[in-house]
Write a structure and sequence with these properties.
By secondary structure, the chain is of the alpha/beta class. It is about 40% helix and about 25% strand. About 50% of the residues are buried.
């Protein structure tokens, strides 16, 4: 993953222990610079004039997080000047006071209390940290918040291609393109299936052949399938990749049926699997909010995300079975089981990927519009090692709560039928991202 870019604005008042404040500032600078690309002034900022002079160094930077270090107590005026000038997630950092008797040398905690009140009254969000400069937990929080801030920043720069319209009766895949952009910054670009099919017909045959040959190294039985239909799916992959490059698209929501089968003579699933594996996430059934959820997850994990259905309760594992036709990224395959190319279970056409999902800790999420407004649904779970329950790509999830309790939440809240999954525990960072976006959280 790329280095996170963190800004530091160290503020103080000269009526406190400036020597100790300078020492604390330098320690914070050194620790942040060790793990991040740090942008910071050289000295403590002790007046509004100092802050105003330092702000130009921040305003044009792609900051993921701005740390306001309250090296000593200061009133809220400097913090508010910074917050109004720079649209970046804020972290107020206070240093614990050395308890040696006598006067308050820093009074840093009271300073962030004052700042937090002013920010709240001003309708601005922030996080806070009360920790020594070398506190491991505190530094991990800085990194986690910067990761969430980077996702927030990148969402604002992202365009998602919406190919066609969602199927009738699939209200779970409806999207409010204006509301989505207001909430997350993501722009939706409407594309037509006909243009994709046209691109598939004109796809470079040599490129299709090279990609098919390379894929055959990962999926040994690829050559056993109908080659004309398989080439159609690979042509869809080539077309999607070209669209991503030419139109600067970070992901797709694809109308994968019935037209891919009835008009293009192939399945879209394999193409979407390959795109998602390369960090250009794709959702089926034109689920734009699902694709945006995948973008959130992969932005935090640095690994692909998979959008999937919940299809069964598995009593043996007290888990929930996830399944989809065959569009999971190949990198999610269980290394102890074979990866196969296959045909769609209903339409009997290739190309789909078939394998069980690998075991490990996962984060489950969904940007949900079930209530009309946005909520970010978040869950921690364990993908257990289990035989495939159905054809296609599937896995068994064991949540922190009983499977029936999770199912009760999904059904009682009327959540969408697609959930996104990535490997690793990123729930805390997702919660921070939700706060940055001012989106309520619902825990599974």
């Amino acid at each position: 993953m790329d280095d996170l870019t963190v800004g530091l604005m160290p503020i103080a008042r000269t009526t406190f222990d400036m020597a100790l404040a300078e020492q604390m500032m330098q320690q914070v600078r050194d620790r942040l610079a060790a793990d991040h690309h740090l942008i910071a002034p050289d000295n403590l900022l002790t007046s509004l004039e100092d802050v105003q002079a330092a702000l130009p160094g921040l305003e044009d930077q792609p900051l993921d997080l701005l740390v306001i270090l309250q090296a000593t107590f200061a009133d809220s005026s400097m913090v508010m000047e910074i917050a109004r000038a720079v649209d970046v997630p804020l972290l107020l950092w206070a240093i614990p006071e050395p308890r040696v008797g006598g006067r308050l040398r820093l009074n840093s905690l009271c300073g962030i209390n004052l700042a937090g009140h002013a920010l709240t009254r001003g309708g601005l969000t922030y996080e806070y940290l009360y920790a020594e400069p070398n506190d491991f937990v505190g530094l991990e929080k800085v990194r986690m918040l910067a990761q969430a801030g980077r996702v927030r920043r990148r969402l604002r720069e992202t365009r998602v291609g919406r190919i066609g319209e969602h199927p009738a009766g699939f209200d779970t895949c409806a999207v409010d393109v204006v509301g989505l952009q207001e909430a997350t910054g993501v722009e939706v670009v409407q594309l037509e299936l006909a243009s994709v099919f046209e691109g598939m017909q004109g796809a470079d045959r040599d490129a299709v052949g090279e990609i098919t040959q390379a894929l055959g190294q990962r999926v040994p039985n690829l050559s056993e399938l109908d080659q004309e239909a398989t080439n159609g799916t690979i042509s869809a992959y080539v077309t999607l990749r070209q669209l991503a490059e030419s139109q600067d698209l970070g992901g797709f929501a694809v109308r994968c049926w019935p037209e891919f089968f009835t008009e293009a003579g192939c399945a879209a699933c394999g193409a979407m699997s390959m795109m998602s594996d390369e960090m250009t996430p794709c959702s089926c059934e034109v689920d734009v909010n699902g694709t945006v959820t995948q973008l959130m997850l992969q932005g935090l994990s640095g690994e692909p995300a998979f959008l999937t259905d919940l299809v069964a309760v598995e009593p043996e594992y007290d888990g929930l079975v996830l399944w989809h036709c065959g569009l999971a990224p190949l990198s999610m395959a269980d290394p102890s089981a074979p990866v196969e190319a296959t045909i769609h279970s209903n339409r009997k056409l290739p190309l789909l990927m078939q394998f069980p999902l690998k075991p490990g800790v996962v984060t489950v999420a969904r940007l949900s519009e079930a209530t009309g407004g946005y909520r970010l649904v978040i869950g921690r779970a364990q993908m257990v090692s289990a035989p495939m329950r159905f054809t296609g790509t599937s896995g068994v999830l064991r949540f922190e709560r009983p499977a029936r309790a999770v199912l009760d939440t999904i059904m009682s809240e009327g959540l969408e039928h697609h959930l996104a999954v990535t490997y690793g525990d990123h729930a805390e960072a997702l919660e921070a991202l939700a706060r940055m976006l001012r989106i309520p959280v619902l825990h599974l």
